[in-house]
Amino acid sequence: MQNYVIIPAHDEEKSIKGTITKAKRHSFNIVVVDDGSKDRTAEICTHEKVTLLHHKVNLGKGAALKTGCDYALTQGAKNIVVIDADGQHDPNLIPFFFKELENAEIVFSHRERSKNMPLVLKLGNIFINKFLTLLYGVKINDSQCGYRAFTADAYHKVRWNANDYFMETEMIINAGKAKLKYTQIPIETVYNDKFKGTTVKDGVLIIMKMISSRLFK
Questions:
Q1: What is the structure's pLDDT at 199?
Q2: pTM here?
Q3: Hey, what domains does the chain have and what are their CATH numbers?
Q4: What was the pLDDT predicted at 183?
Q5: 51 - beta bridge partners?
């Protein structure tokens, strides 16, 4: 079974080595997509036994993940886990994601509620989750958590167009439209930078895009 781990990275020189080191304990097939980093992210990766792909300029998380996943499929990947590079997701949970794929086509994760989770993230997530249920009938506990896994067949059905943070929501929408069998698992998240991730502006744009997708597609 070809299991691949995809790590999109943009200016993650402080955390990328630790994320790779932990991920390598659970998969021989690690793909890092350097999304136009201006720091030492790419240089650090060249000293690790991983496949390193490059974007010359920063195209966004959605674009980086597509590059990595598309590449993995050309190499015969059957199952794929996608994980952030910034250390907020615990790579030691990778085996649990692959295990869940034995009975599901796609695995979502949800961050356990914590006082450390920024309030803006909590409220934004609640609104987006409710709109996903209302518009698409998909019940997800944490629509913005990027730690996920899917089979190669599922990837063909959920492959997103968005290059930005909307890709996480678009993946859920596509999974719902394709009626994929999914499951959810809880994870603990470390908030190294409370300002990183989906902003209020991002949240508003995500909801507007969800409505537009429902009305016009």
A1: 62
A2: 0.88
A3: 3-216 (3.90.550.10)
A4: 97
A5: 31
